[in-house]
């Protein structure tokens, strides 16, 4: 950017904590490239706040998931949508970046497009159009100019489905690979006094209250079956603060008392120590894959979402499986998420078995599948945001 050019004005909209983390890294990359010649406005959380964003309202106002969770808060969410659109139009930004949370951010993008058709809109994180409701891809062309994809197969999916231009910029986990490789798990093993002769089972029931509520009971019963069969796993649960008390209450009915840990460093140390994991489906399956941790994946959804499963168009709902193009992690969804099935799938992973080594061999391919040519995903995303924002200036005046 030359000395006489005005700062790039970027309007960002995140809808939950994961989007706040992505937005913060994007803001940091933009500031590295542009220095003080970039300004921010919009909606975000505390991480984006640390990068200089004064959010219009707290993320907690809109951070909900699933039809049954959204309905009671719909009036407030609608008010927040309209307030965000008004603020975006008033700012007259060079580019708008919506980040994940399509139920919230796409409603904003559609209204901005109607009121300011020439304002470029970038969607950071593709909706799962490759998995269900594929018609969304084509509809997105009306109000999204470019999609920044976190998964390597998504650009081809948008091309096939008639979606907007889409670029794989890399998953944020790629930025943490060197840190993950250097992280020493020994301090956690010593603190928990783990027995090196016994397997370590990592349990990941999710970070949302609804996930924990649906999964802790079958997870605990599955472990009870394993113990009844003679297994002696040392169990670790990483618990984020807002669901820790819920996890502790659920543990009253478990057959063994697991170690509860907190914080990102200890969580990833536990990944490295784990013989195997029992995990809720989500981004955590990619985290497990990057650390080469064998796992069984399970998930349960609310009654409305369960009735929509016939719309799912992919052979797996597990991100690690989709990245590899092979179902390396066995998955147990809804009625298949039973203690008996979970225990049967976990048992061979806790020993030196062909099942465990098959997973390890396949997981070794994940880093290559997620690799990007740019220095980091955030840098690749920032380059596209700058290019789109600059290109819009001459024609927008």
Task: Offer a quick outline of the entry.
The protein has 397 residues and is α/β, with parallel strands linked by helices. It contains 19 helices and twelve strands.
Can you walk through the features of this model?
The chain has 19 helices and 12 strands. About 45% of the residues lie in helices and about 15% in strands. Helix 4 packs across helix 5, helix 10 packs across helix 11 and helix 10 crosses helix 16. It has 2 domains: about 190 residues, Rossmann fold; about 190 residues, 3-Layer(aba) Sandwich (Rossmann fold). A 6-stranded parallel beta sheet has the order 2-1-3-4-5-6, sandwiched between helices. Strands 9-8-7-10-11-12 form a 6-stranded parallel beta sheet, sandwiched between helices. With about 400 residues, it is of the alpha/beta class. About 5% of the residues have low confidence.
Name some characteristics of this structure.
12 strands; about 400 residues; Rossmann fold; 2 domains; six-stranded parallel β-sheet
Q: CATH H-level name of the largest domain... which superfamily?
A: Glycogen Phosphorylase B
| Text of the CATH class of the largest domain | Alpha Beta
Low-confidence stretches: 302-312
- How is the CATH topology of the largest domain named? Rossmann fold
Distance between the termini: 17 Å
User: Strand count, sense and closure of the main sheet?
Assistant: 6 strands, parallel
Which structural class do the helices and strands define? alpha/beta
Query: Which percent bin holds the helix content?
Result: 40-55%
CATH hierarchy: architecture of the largest domain? 3-Layer(aba) Sandwich
Q: How large is the count of helical segments?
A: 19
Rg computed from alpha carbons, rounded to a whole number of angstroms: 22 Å
The general outline is elongated
What is the average of the pLDDT values? Answer: 90
- When the domains are counted, the total is 2
Strand order of the largest sheet: 2-1-3-4-5-6
Q: Assess the beta-strand content as a share of residues.
A: 5-15%
Number of strands: 12
